Amino acid sequence: MASRKEQKEALRREREEREAAAKAAERRRRLIGYGAGLAVVLTAVLVGALLLGGGNGGGGDDDTPGGGDSEVAADILPESGSVPEPRNTPLIEASQAAGCELKSYRGDSRGHSTELGEQIEYESMPPTSGRHFQVEAQDGDYEQAPDAKRLVHSLEHGRVVIWFKQDLPRDVRAGLKALYDEDTFQMLLTPDETGSPYEVAATAWNRDPLPNGTGRLMGCEEFSPEVYEALRAFKDEHRSNGPEPVP
Q1: What is the pTM of this model?
Q2: pLDDT by residue (tens digit) across 19-49?
Q3: Are strands 101-106 and 214-220 parallel, antiparallel or unpaired?
């Protein structure tokens, strides 16, 4: 009989093969859709370059950490931030000091969607658990938000996602970037485009009770410097505890 370690390794390989196949299928669909209009697009680009004397190009990928395609996007997470020193405050105490609320949501599904455009209703915004896209968002800090269904898949893998409103003051966004850079292991930092009421929030997906676990949300309607310590405490409490643990 295979050992537990061997079983986990086999499951990991199966997951990687499944996700690689899904990515390849998605790429094939895109190539088929784009092929018919490729010649027209290339012609338009060449004509535009001749008429305008060249120009800057490039586009950000929503699922590429640090992605952005404009000066505005590039300034979403400035590098110049600083945060207070850690105090190792317990989560409940830290969240209360920051004026944030803690909520839990019983998971109702761990199913996968094969269509990124599928509309999925979540119990909370930002979401904490539930049906999600079959390919997760990569760990990292984002200037353009990945699709929420990919972020939920990241939560299933034991990640913690920090969400923030893009209209927060520059120094606050820089501080969140600095906080993220302190400890990036299994962390994602992203603009919040879910319509949530929070200026800053954090989400996680715990494995218990099986099979669908429990979603965790810390929502802060108004930012204060105490939020940094609350985010640290939330991360320490919930990271690496997903229903499908992935290194």
Answers
A1: 0.75
A2: 565 555 555 544 444 444 444 344 444 434 4
A3: antiparallel
Mean pLDDT, range 231-240, rounded to an integer: 98
Question: What's at 83, amino acid-wise?
Answer: V
Give the residue carrying structure tokens 């018919």. 36
The amino acid occupying position 56 is: N
Measure the CA–CA gap between 141 and 122, rounded to whole angstroms.
23
Dihedral sign for Cα atoms in the order 202, 204, 208, 212: positive
**Smallest Cα–Cα separation from 160: which of 213, 218, 199, 110?**
218
Which ranges in 86-169 belong to alpha helices (H)? 91-98, 148-156
Q: How many residues does the chain have?
A: 247
Peptide bond into 126 cis (omega under 30): yes
Residues 6 or more apart whose CB falls under 8 angstroms from that of 205 comprise 107, 128, 129, 152, 155, 156, 158, 213, 214, 215, 216, 242, 243
- Residue in 126, 194, 110 with CA at minimum distance from that of residue 160: 126
Q: Which residues contact 181 (CB under 8 A, 6 or more apart)?
A: 141
First-residue to last-residue Cα distance in the chain:
24
Q: For residue 205, which phi and psi values (nearest 5 degrees)? A: -135, 110
Reading phi first (left if > 0) and then psi (alpha if -120 to 50, else beta), residue 45 is in alpha
Question: Distance between CA 139 and CA 64 in Å, rounded?
Answer: 9
Amino acid present at 85: E
Rounded CA gap, 50 and 44, in Å?
10
